[in-house]
Design goal:
7-stranded parallel beta sheet, 304 residues, globular, 13 helices, two-stranded parallel ribbon, Rossmann fold
């Protein structure tokens, strides 16, 4: 496949590159001429589809971000192959749907060990090289769920809110070293994570949840909302742009019609207004379109 000629090539590590956003991001960066180390848990199974057509620009490395040894090995591999690391795309994540009452210890441990601690491990692994270089980028894929909480995925929201706090603090710590930190705030997308690998609580899987019907309605609503958004490649292009172009003021990079429309409306609402809106939806269960409800029923503007 022909590679586009653009900027000087960067060396980029992309985690969770076996499918979805990670795979498309790795391939988009390679298309733009960058050198990519695409990490995944099972490179023998998933690597060939990621590399195909970009054999000279994508290298695959085994990495489970829940392992300290694995994240350090992935960073060492990139340095061994290329001598530098210009950017890290923290993409690997888990999605957990289910009522907070029914989440068990192992589920919450696995969620935070990936979505928070795993991102921290991978970031820590690349920072010594970036500090020596006096420059680099940490780009972390977050979510609208990291800015607005809602029913049926409170645990997932908690992991993303924690990630937001971590990355905001990191931004201040790394600024003196010329290292930029950005968060990709993405909405619902037609990804395999959402439609093939959606991780629900064991109670929901067993069909024994007290919240079974509303949670299932939430999942169906999420699919409807996701299908209104552009393809996952849109996210990949935004991430690639963030790798290529300096914008030290951009902490949050919004991607998706729902994010662009919902966030300004949410920011205009007081907490009490938002609470009243969510409370008024109780008879409807936990519809996945509740973000859309914000758009369809915006608060009455307050006179300046």
């Amino acid at each position: 496949m022909e590679v586009a000629e653009k900027l000087a090539p960067r060396v980029v590590i992309v985690t969770g590159a076996s499918r979805g956003v990670g795979r498309e991001t790795a391939r988009e960066l390679a298309f733009r001429g960058h050198q990519v180390v695409a990490t995944m848990r099972n490179p023998d199974r998933d690597g060939p589809a990621v590399v195909q057509g970009f054999e000279s620009h994508i290298q695959v490395a085994a990495c489970d971000i829940t392992s300290r040894n694995a994240t350090e090995a992935a960073a060492a591999f990139a340095l061994e192959q290329h001598g530098r690391i210009d950017a890290l795309v923290n993409n690997a994540a888990l999605l957990l749907i289910g009522a907070i009452e029914e989440v068990v210890d192992q589920e919450i441990h696995d969620l935070f060990n990936t979505n928070l601690t795993g991102q921290m491990r991978m970031t820590q692994a690349v920072l010594p090289a970036m500090r020596r270089q006096q420059g680099g980028k940490i780009i972390t894929v977050s979510s609208l769920a990291g800015r607005i909480a809602g029913p049926a995925f409170g645990s997932y929201c908690a992991s993303k809110w924690a990630l937001e706090g971590l990355m905001q603090a990191l931004r201040y710590e790394l600024a003196p070293f010329g290292i930029e930190v950005s968060l990709i705030t993405m909405g619902a997308y037609r990804t395999e994570m959402q439609f093939k690998s959606t991780f629900t609580t064991q109670k929901l899987q067993d069909g024994t949840s007290v919240y079974q019907a509303p949670c299932e309605a939430f999942i169906e609503g999420e699919k409807v909302r996701a299908n209104l958004n552009p393809s996952v490649r849109t996210v990949a292009c935004n991430i690639a742009d963030a790798v290529e172009f300096p914008d030290p003021l951009a902490l949050h990079i919004p991607v998706g019609f729902d994010v662009h429309r919902v966030m300004p409306l949410r920011e205009r609402m007081s907490y009490d207004e938002f609470e009243a809106m969510i409370s008024g939806m109780r008879n409807e269960g936990f519809p996945g379109s509740w973000f859309g409800t914000i758009e369809e029923n915006p608060p009455v503007p307050v006179a300046e």
